[in-house]
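A common beginner's mistake is to predict each chain separately and then try to dock the pieces by hand. The better habit, illustrated here, is to supply every component at once so that their relative placement is modeled jointly.
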Amino acid sequence: MSVIAADDDLEGAPRPRGTNYINAERGIVSWLTTVDHKRIGLMYLGSVLVAFALGGFFALLLRLELLSPGHTIMSANQYNQAFTLHGAVMTFLFIIPSIPGALGNFLVPILLGAKDVAFPRLNLLSLYLYWIGAIFTLSSIVTGGLDTGWTFYVPYASTTNTSVLSVTFGIFVLGFSSVLTGLNFIVTMHKLRAPGMTWYRMPLILWSLYATSIVQILATPVLAITLLLLMAERVFHIGIFDPALGGDPVLYQHFFWFYSHPAVYIMILPGMGIISELIAVHAQRKIFGYKAIAFSSVAIALVGFLVWGHHMFVSGQSEVAATIFSFLTFIVAVPSGIKVFNWVSTLYGGSIKFTAPMLFAMCFLFLFTIGGLTGLFLGMLSVDMHLHDTYFVVAHFHYVMMGGTVTAFLGGLHHWWPKMTGRMYSQKLAAVAAALYFIGFNVTFFSQFILGTRGMPRRYYNYLDQFQPLHAFSTFGSWLLGVGFLLMLYYLLKSLKSGAIAPQNPWGGKSLEWTDAASPPVTENFEHRPVVTEGPYEFNEGKS
Amino acid sequence: MRLTPIDIGSFWLPRQTSTLAPEVDAGFHVVYWLSVGFFVLVVGAMAYFAVRYRRRREGEKTSSIDHSTALEIVWTTIPALMLLGLFAMGLKGYASAAVAPAEALEIQVTAEKWLWTFTYPNGTTTVNELGVPKDRPVRLVMSSKDIVHSFFVPEFRIKQDLVPGAYTTTWFQATEAKDVAVLCAEYCGTGHSDMGAKIIVMDEPVYKDWLEKGGGASDLPPAELGKKLFTQRSCATCHSLDGSRIQGPSLKGLIGRSEDLEGGASVKVDENYIRESILNPGAKIVRGYPAAMPTFQGLLKDREIDALIAYLKSVN
Amino acid sequence: MSATDKPARENEFQVAHHFDSADVQFDAGRMGIWLFLVTEILLFGGLFCAFAVFRSWYYADFVEAHHHLNRVMGAVNTVVLICSSLTMALAVRSAQMSKTKLTSLLIGVTLALSCVFLTIKFFEYSHKFHEGLLPGRYFTAEGFHGHHAGIFFAVYFMMTGIHGIHILIGMGLMIWLLRRNMRGEFSSRYYAPVEGFGLYWHLVDLVWIYLFPLLYLIG
Ligand code: HEA
Ligand code: HEA
Ligand code: CUA
Ligand SMILES: [Cu+2]
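With all components supplied together, the output reads:
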C-alpha cells in the first residue's frame, strides 16, 4: 500500500466504480430502513452537521447582540433564549453524538474487521431516538423558547414559564440514543474483532471510543433520572428541589454535574482518538506510547467520574467537598498531559505532510493545550472564586469543546471523507479554510479569556461599556469563523459532484479501513474477511 | 441601569482592593506562568518537529522508537507534582476566604429578582448600595428570596452563590475608600445582567455618619433624589422611561393616564396609586403584566417615595 | 438483544449475517443485556442517593412518614415478586429444554403474579391519594409533627412509580414472549429473548427487594 498521493493533481481520469454501500440500494426508504452501520453513520453525519449549523446560527446571533452593550438586535429575553438554545443544541444535538454517532458508527466495525456492529437494529433505533429527541428539543423554538441556560438550574428551571418540559423530555430521549450507541460499541469491540485483532492491535481511536462508551453507559442514566425529577418538580411540585418545601437546589446541581462533567469526556475522548490516528498516518510514523495513550483514555474515563463538584466551588457545598473535588480535578489532568506529550513525540522523526487532516491535528494540539491548561486555573479553589461564571469559563470550554472536539471532528471528517464518499476534496481550499478557522477561533475566544479575568460575567445581555472593544473583537472573530465554515461547506459539497475519485488508500494508512476496504466500502465492508497479523501503525515495512 | 465600572489593575486582572485579592492573584500568576511554560514547550516542540521532519519525498523511512518508559515516567510525575503545588496554593487562598475573622462586622444580604438588599446590625436597610468601613473585615450572611443568585465583586476576588432556603457566607476587608462594583454572577433571568450593586467603601468616621443617616440620605431636591433612586433602587431594571416595555410597564407619561387592570377594572394614575404600586404592588396588577414587582415596604422611606413620585411626574 | 433482531420463523434459528457463529451471537446478546441492566441500576442509583440524602437531613420526618406505609401490603408484594422471579427462572430453564408448553405456562404465571403486584400497588396508591399522603405541594394529610413528610412521599412515589413502570413494560414484554413462544420460536437452540427478559425481570425484582426495607421497614 504505497498510494501516498493526495493532492489536487489526483484529478485524473475517474475510473468507474462498482457497487458500494451508497449505491447498493436506492430510494429514501432503503436508507430509512437500513441496518448498515455505514449508512447509519452517514445519516448521523448529516444530522449532526445540520445541528451544528443551527447552533452556529444562534452563536452568530448572540455574538451580534453582544457587539454593543444593551439592546443591539434583540431583547434580553430573546438573548437568554439564544444562548440557551445555542448551548443545548451544541451539547446535546451536536457534540455528544457527533464523533461516536457519525464517524464512530462508520468506522468501528471496519476498523475491527467486522461486517457490522453487534446490534444493527438497535443502531438504527438509536438514530431514530436521536431524531425524536431532536424534534422535542427544537420544538421549544416555536412553543415559547427556553431560557434556563443549558444547565437547567432549579428553582429557575422549575418556575420559568418557557417550554422546559419539551426540551428536558427531548434530552431524556437523546440520552437513550447515546446509551444505545455506547452499549453497541462495547459489545462490538468485545465480540466482533476479526481473527488476529487483539486488543493491542486495535487502532487507538477504538480505545478512546471504548472509554467513551463506558462513560455513556454509566453517566447517562443519572442524567435521565435528574431530568425525570426536574419534570416531576415542574408538573407535580414534588418538592425535591424546591426550597420552599424543604427540597434542595444544590442537590440538583450535584445530580446535573454528576452527568455533565463525565459528559465533557464523552465529548473529548473520541476527539483524542481521532488525533492519534491523524498524527500517526500523516506523519507516517509509528505512534509513540501506544499503551500510555490507550490506558490514559481509560483513566480519564474513570477518574472523570469523581470531579463533578468543581463546577460548584462557590455554590454553597461544604468546604471539605470542594477541597476533595479540586484535588481530583488536578489528578484527571495528568492523563491528558500524557496524551499530549505522546502525540508531540510521535511527530519526532516522522515524515510530516501538511494535508488538511494534519493541519487540523496541529490546530487541535495548539487549541486543546490552551483549553486544558485554562482548566487548571478553574480547578484552583481560590482562582475559581474569581473566575467562576465569567467569560474565562466560556473561553475555557470553547477551547476544549470547539478547539478540541470540533477541530478533531473536522480533522477526522477530512481524513475519512475519501473513504466515506469515495471523493477527494481540494487540499488547497481546505488549507485556506483551516487557516480561517484557526485565526477566527482565536480572535473570537482568546479575547474572552481577557474579558473573564477582568470580571465580565457570562450569560450577560448587557455589560459595562469598558468591555465593548473586546466584545466587538470577539464578534468580528465569529464572522471569520462563519466564512471559514462556508468555505468548508463549499468545497466538500463540490467534491461530491466533481471531486477526483478517491483511491483506496490516499494517505498511506495501515489500519483496515485503508488496507482492506474499498473507497467507499462495499455493503458488508470487505470483499474478503481480513486477517490481522500486525498492529495498525507499522509504517516502515519494506522501506530501507 | 448603569453599573459601576470595574477598575482594571493589570492587563489580566482588576485592581486589588481587598486583602484577599493579592493572595488569589498570587495563585493566578503561578498557574499562568506554568501554563505559558507548558504551552511553549508543547507548541514549540510541535512547530519545531513540523519543520524539521516535514516530508521531503514520499516513502521516507521514519523513526521506529515506539515508546520510552523513562519519558513516560518523567512526564507523568513532574506535572503531577506541579499540580499538587497548584492544588495547595488554591486551597490556601480558599481557606483564607472561607473563615472570617471573629471580629468581623456582620451584614445580611438578601437577593431577589433583580435587586440586592443589605441589612446592617442597627436595622438600617439599603438597596443596591452596600456601605462598608475601610480596613475592617466585613462578613456577609446571605440568602435569596426566589432563585439562585451570586454575589460577585471582581476587585475583591470574591464570589458566592445565594441559595433560597439556606444561608451562605463570605467576607472581605476593603483596602481603598472608593466605589466598587458588585455583579450578579449566577444566571437569574431577564434582569440578570442588570442586577448590579455598588459597595461604597468609606473611612470609618464617614461610614459611621453614613449609617447614622440611614444609608446616605441626601439633601438633593426631591426630583433629583428621585432620579438617583430610580436607578439605585433598580426601578430602571424593570421600567423604562422612553415608552418601551421591559419587565414592567414604561413609566413615561404615567401621571394621569388610565390603566387597565387585571380582572377588568381600570384606574386613573395619581400619587396614591403610585405609592400603592411601590409599597403593595400586588394590590393592583396592570393588565398584561406578571405580578413580578417586589414590594419596597420598609426599603424606601416616605421622603424617598415622595422623591420618586416627584421625579416620575417630571418625566411626564 | 440482537438475537431478538432476527426472529427465526420456522423453528430453525439462523445466525445473523455479521456473527461468526450462534455462540458468539448469544454471548453478544447476553453482554448487551447485562450492560443495559447496568444502566438501569444507575438510574435507580440516583434515586437511592436522593433518598439517602433527604433521610439523613429529615431523619425524624422520614421515620414518622414511613409509618404511614402499609407494611402488610408491601410484604405481600415482596413475596409476590420473589415468586414471580422464581417462575421466570423456571421458564428460562424450560425454554432451554424446549418444553414449549411448560414455558408458556410459567410465563403466564409470572404475568399473573405481576398483575397481582400491580393490583395491590393500586390499592396502596389509592389509599395514599385518599389520605392526602402526596408529594410536595399536594401533601395535605394532617397530624404530622415534621414539615417534610411531603419529601418522603415525593421519593416514595418517584421510586415506586418508576419501578411500577418497569413492571408494566415487563408485562408487555411477557405478552410478546408468550406469542413468540406459542409460535414455537424458542427451543434449546434459541432462547436468548427468554433468558434476556429473565435477567431484566430479576433486576426489577431486586430493585423492589431494596425498596421494600428502605421505604417500609427501617425506622
Ligand atoms: C470537551 C470538554 C471539556 C474538557 C476536555 C475539559 C477539561 C477540563 N476542565 Fe472543563 N469545562 C467544560 C468542558 C471541558 N472541560 C465545560 C463545558 C465547562 C462549563 C460548563 C458550564 O458551566 O456551562 C467546564 C468548566 C470547568 C470548570 C468549572 C469552572 C466554573 O464554572 O467555575 C473547571 C474547574 O475545575 C474545569 C476544569 C477542567 C480541567 C482541569 C480539565 C482537564 O481535563 C484538562 C486537562 C488538559 C490539560 C491540562 C492540557 C494538556 C496537558 C499538558 C500540556 C500537560 C502539561 C500540563 C500539566 C498537567 C501541568 N472545567
Ligand atoms: C460544541 C459546543 C459549542 C460550539 C461549537 C460553540 C460555538 C460557538 N459559541 Fe458557544 N457555547 C456552548 C457550546 C458551544 N459553542 C455552550 C455549552 C455554551 C453555554 C450556554 C449557556 O450558558 O447555557 C456556549 C455559550 C456561548 C457564549 C456565551 C453566551 C453567554 O454566556 O452570554 C458565546 C458568546 O460569545 C458563544 C459563542 C460561540 C461562537 C461564536 C461559536 C462559533 O464557534 C460558532 C461557529 C459556527 C458557525 C459560524 C456556523 C457555521 C455554519 C455555517 C456557516 C453554515 C453551514 C451550513 C450547513 C452545514 C448546512 N457560545
Ligand atoms: Cu441575580 Cu443573576
Ligand atoms: Cu467539569
